[in-house]
Design goal:
Elements lengths: L2 H23 L45 H5 L2 E2 L4 E8 L6 E6 L5 E5 L17 E7 L9 E9 L6 E2 L4 E4 L7 E5 L9 E6 L16 E2 L5 E2 L5 E6 L2 E6 L9 E3 L5 E4 L6 E3 L39 E2 L4 E2 L6 E5 L13 E5 L4 E10 L2 E6 L9 E3 L6 E6 L5 E5 L16 H9 L9 E7 L16 H6 L6 H14 L5 H10 L3 H13 L5 H8 L4 H16 L5 H8 L5 H14 L4 H11 L3 H11 L17 H22 L22 H4 L3 H9 L1 E2 L11 E2 L7 H13 L10 H10 L7 E2 H5 L4 E3 L6 E4 L3 E2 L17 E2 L9 E19 L1 E3 L13 E3 L4 E7 L5 E9 L3 E19 L13 E9 L2
Parallel strand pairs: 28-30
Antiparallel strand pairs: 1-24, 2-27, 3-4, 4-5, 5-6, 7-8, 8-9, 9-10, 11-12, 13-14, 15-16, 16-17, 18-19, 20-21, 21-22, 22-23, 22-24, 25-26, 26-27, 28-29, 31-41, 32-35, 33-34, 34-41, 35-40, 35-41, 36-37, 38-39, 38-40
Helix pairs in contact: 5-7, 6-7, 7-9, 8-9, 9-11, 10-11, 11-13, 12-13, 14-17, 17-18
Enzyme class: oxidoreductase
GO molecular function: electron transfer activity; heme binding; metal ion binding; nitrite reductase (NO-forming) activity
Protein name: Nitrite reductase (NO-forming)
Length: 919
Amino acid sequence: MPYKYQQIFRLGFFGLIATLLFTSFNSQLRINLPTRFMGDTLRLPEGVDPNDENWKGIDLAPKSPIQPLSVAEEAKQFLLPPGYKIQAVLTDPAIQQPGEIVFDGNGRMYVLELRSYMLDADSKNELEPISRISRWEDKNNDGVFETGTTFVDHLIFPRFVLPYGKNAVLTMESDADNVYKYTDTNGDGKADKKELFTTKFGRSGNVEHQQAFLFYGMDNWLYSTVNAFRIRETPNGIIREKTGANRAQWGITQDDNGKLWFQGGASGLPSYFQFPIHYGNFDVPNEIAKGFDVPWGAAIKIADMQGGMDEIRQPDGSLNHVTGSAGNDIYRGDRLPSNLQGQLFYGEPVARIVRQVNPLVKDGLTTLHNVYQDQKSEFLRSTDPLFRPVDMTTAPDGTLYITDMYHGIIQEGQWTPKGSYLRTKIDQYRLDKVIGLGRIWRITYEGKERDTKQPRMYDEKSATLLSYLGHPNGWWRDQAQQVLVLRKDKSIVPMLHSMALKNAKEHTRVHAIWTLEGLGALSHDVVKKLLNDPNPRIRIHALKASETLYKAGEKSLAAEYLTLMNDSNHEVAMQAILTSKFLKIPNLEASLKSTLAKNSSPGVKLISEQILNPPKPRNVGPFGAAELSKDQKAILERGELVFSELCSQCHGNDGMGKPAANGKLLAPALAGSYRIQSHPEYAVRVILHGLDGAIDGKTYAGGLMAPMKEQSDQWISDVVSYIRNGLSNDASFVSPQQVAAIRAKSQKQTGMYKYDALIKLVPQEFVADANWKFAASHTSSTRIGGNVSPKSALNFEGWSTGITQAKDMWYQIEFPEVYNLSEFHFTSTQTFRRGARPVPGATPVFIYTHPRVYAVETSLDGKNWQTTLANVKGNEGENVLLLDQVKTKFIRMKLNEGLSNEKDETPWVMRQLKVYGIK
């Protein structure tokens, strides 16, 4: 019996009427009142107003479950402009739920497999360690990636994958704070070495709101979404610099000039693209063309959009207003039509489209236009409701790759609760049953074959890589530069000088400049020549690259910047203004006013006026960096003054250490220093009592750090706080009270410290491993899909009692051996009331989850306990407990009071728990 007649038979009379109406009008059945059918028909959730625009007209009739198509059948559902073709290059079951792809220098494709994403409508087990990074090769060069390995396995919803040298990648997990480098040392295609790359990189939130897409920029810095900073590896450690807020979620790409393009998420639009993000944020009116926020997807029919019926285009059931976006790429290849080069592509997975965007630049300002808007169409559409484009990539073969998660649900569980419109649609079409799939597609064009030359950059000589800096495919140029910089081969510097100054190809000159900058070999003489080059594009890149030299002490460049602020080319003038603003050159305000009087270009006018009169910061929601308080700003200003006048003489203006003879530094680098960013006691003790000799086996030309204990606690507090925050570091401020306590504790110190002796006195963080055991009287996840484990207190996910705080609730850690503990840190922050979901436009209701009054108990055997701290009052935010070096194998926190007077449920929550002691 045909399916529709089976349904009529099952539903009886009312079902017959409903089905006939549906068939007769060939449109969705529209219901304006709460309606109930017999059989499997859904109902409007209890309490829903039938006149609510988000529900009005919803079709609640029974539907056949959405079934996944074969790869060949899905390919038939794509709609592309004439001449374009699409073919699969890697598919399920080999991969599952891909979220990002990226190619390394040998053309191998790494796939970020988010195998725990939305396995049911409640995002159950979303933080289980079942995701992976796989690596794939096309060994027979037929265009299909047939050979693969699991490069890194058992990951907790990894945030990104970035190839970083031969057989190595950078990645991090959700709810974590550390980025790790994984390396395959024996060549079997599986990483067997894990190293800490950098820390303080993560943040809390559901998996859609955390940082993602670590990206290696042309300027040799690494950027991610969400985080308002950039990082960079140097010979002396990882450094970081603050940037503007990128307001992005899932996607970063760059154009031929290295300008980054960030992709929004819930906005459904590109987020920040106007100027390089490290210059801060500028407000540019009308940068998105009218009508850009309207998607033109194919008729999907199922209307499974979070916004409800108000966002459904009738009668085809497609999305009428963008609501989500993911993955982006400025196409820079050479095997598709030339009019695609420099165009922006990104996915709208809710609308099942890939959009082509034309960035029109006028007077230095960019406006985005949907190329197919007038045709009420998109570059790529699909009639398959499971098509979920989440990443776009210019490939080594010169074509465009599309990462298709091919998934039933594309919205995190926080927004799919029972009773919601979207949950109703998920249940109606059984979308939660479509999991564990995924496809990677290649887009080609008739008459243009893909490039079959396979990259082998890791195996080629540096001189060969230089030839790729002018390749017509931007992927080859970017990757060759990255491999050369990571290789640190300075034998090619003379050739790079020649290429930067006089090569016939602009692309070659640009990448030669940045390769020199990445190798630390960009000289002042070369920069001065480039700043006076007749080609305005070269002058612009010389300005940007020279910022590194200025920060390192080449202050004479300020005169060049002031001159170029009045360049005849308004884009050069704009770049000179941005560089001057970033470097805070002297007399900038007066120079800007002078430039404004001479140059009426809209771009020059806009950035100059906003530098002189900065606009109020936008509300950037969960993606904005925390604003410093007035007192914190004053501390940094005082500390910077001390550092500039005194410390910079040895440690360098930028904190990277001042060069001395024989390749040594006069003093160690402070920027990006793990020692500086770890426990503050290290820096305070060094300033108080001095340090002599080698540091961690490395010697310095200066020889020693003189003691300065005659300085006040406030003075030391200011300078240490500045060093921990103002030199690309990201660590806590240090109070005068902390300095006083360390001064008292170390008063018996005579003479300067030796490093090996000092490091034994400074508290070190004990890092949890599989041998640590956790227990609690009550345990609940802090969010949907989270892990129900006391161990979650260690990360951003956090541990919760799940119910209101009550007397004698406890949390316990058992160490594998007796530890000498000195400090215990954790954070307890505001959260939404249990069961409450954020509602756009509404003021969220918060509760305070810190423990009110508690004791800290320790034990050597887990049976006999002694109170180490009594009647401790918890704080909202960071809590630091000083334990005075207690030797223990067990530590337990126990509530002394409950919250019987609280009207609403107020659990005890802890995140980012850390234990310090003397090792």
